[in-house]
Amino acid sequence: MTREINIDGLVGPTHNYGGMSFGNLASANNKGQTSNPRSAALQGLQKMRQLIDLGLTQAVMPPQERPFMSGLKKLGFTGNDSDVLQAAYKVSPALVSNYSSASCMWTANAATVSPSPDTADGKVHFTPANLTAMPHRSIEGPQAETILKAIFADESAFTVHAPLPANTLFGDEGAANHNRLSATHADKALEVFVYGREALNADDKPSKFPGRQTLEASQIVARSHRLKPDNTLFVRQSNSAINAGAFHNDVVCVANGPVLLFHETAFDDYIGLEETLKRAAEPLGFVPQMVMAKNAEFPIEDAIKSYFFNSQLLTLPNGKMALVLPADAEENMASKQFADACVSGDNPIDQTIFMDLRQSMRNGGGPACLRLRVQLTDDELSKMHQPVIMSHQKIDRLEDWVKTHYRDALIVEDLGDPKLLDEARSALDELTQILELGSMYEFQKDGASN
Question: Is 108 left (phi over 0), alpha (psi -120 to 50) or beta?
């Protein structure tokens, strides 16, 4: 049996609204607001609990180390960790904010994943994203690689690659710009890489907001994953979608099985795309099902505001499809009307489920941002690190852990406080014990000095 597991990012103790993501309208609009790390983490855990109740396999990815002290030390700050943090904050609160971001909770950006039916060597391949477009995210790649190698350590089944070279030619944003279309999770698939710009094309027209994913990066990942060229497509995201605030394709598009659910503005030529998908899918024995929201009925502004397409489109154990949406999508009239249309008539989606993820949403991350999808056979599932697979009992324990260690209010000014550094490290140290990950963080290996 092959199943899709959702690996959700656990929100870290330094979750804050620093407004650092250019082109992400929610992040910019909520800059400087008071965040609630405790509520954010509990909301994420509740989403995991609900997916377990739907009969799905759910796992968790731990937060990365924040504040990222070794990164600050490389910038010339000296002394013990408290001294370094305070000195850096005195020089630039914005700098410390970048190195304290909890954005790694959005594991859709942790890596691109190709399951074993798609790869030439029959292994599951992971390439951690380098996330070069945003400074606060560009520090995530090496730690993501470390975490993925801990979870998927068995090299007989898994290959975890290094992130691509960290430069503007190879900007890679992970699974947020990657779709997989297939008859079922167990079958060979079309892997559809969506890019925002061609870095080596001098004539590539500029956008108001940057196209974060490059064609060149997508091509490298496809080669590294040993994908068959006939089953691999590279599709351009429209500049109009990027300029409207769709900084990743998963803000205007989501796929599952044979279904591609997308906004009319997501691609410049959706008719041509449908024809291309049908031709490529025919040898694989399935017909893609295109479900499109028309801009005249569901304006792109409402799609971005509600984060409708940043949803989880899931195949349930009974074979039916469910669409997990943020609560914001239920409160927007145009979004709610389209959600109702998706489950009416002959559409392939059977039910909609709305979840409260407001803490994440205010930074521009909905249900799809919070999870990395991995299709695994039962044998492959048995070879991954079992303690990160969630159950109600494990979620109960993590909820108690959050309530013990997380603050219920955090402002940007708190990020320069050494007490927050101590709190975060204490939390992560205990978490590695709960998840049986060993001394994974740098402060555990080096012996933190405060």
Answer: alpha
Predicted TM-score of the model (pTM): 0.94
Cβ distance 376 to 115 under 8 Å?
A: yes
**Is 173 designated active site?**
yes
Would you give the DSSP letter of residue 10? P
Q: In this predicted model, what pLDDT tens digit does every residue of 173-205 receive, in sequence order?
A: 999 999 999 999 999 999 999 999 999 998 887
Q: Which of 225, 253, 369, 405 is catalytic?
A: 369
Phi, psi (deg, nearest 5) at residue 432: -65, -25
Counting the structural domains of the chain, the total is: 1
The answer to whether residues 32 and 412 touch, using CB atoms and an 8 Å cutoff, is yes
Please give the pLDDT value at position 358. 76
Domain that holds residue 68: 2-446
Known catalytic residue at 369: yes
**Radius of gyration from C-alpha coordinates of the chain:** 21
- Which CATH number does the domain housing residue 425 bear? 3.75.10.20
d(CA 154, CA 384): 7
Distance CA 389, CA 343 (A): 30
* Average pLDDT score, the chain: 93
Going by C-beta distance under 8 Å and a sequence separation of 6 or more, which residues neighbour residue 223? none
Backbone angles phi, psi at 186, to 5 degrees: -80, -15
From the candidates 65, 145, 173, 380, which is the catalytic residue? 173
User: pLDDT tens, 418-430?
Assistant: 999 999 999 999 9
Q: pLDDT tens, 87-115?
A: 999 999 999 999 999 999 999 999 999 99
Choose the catalytic residue: 125, 248, 263, 405: 248
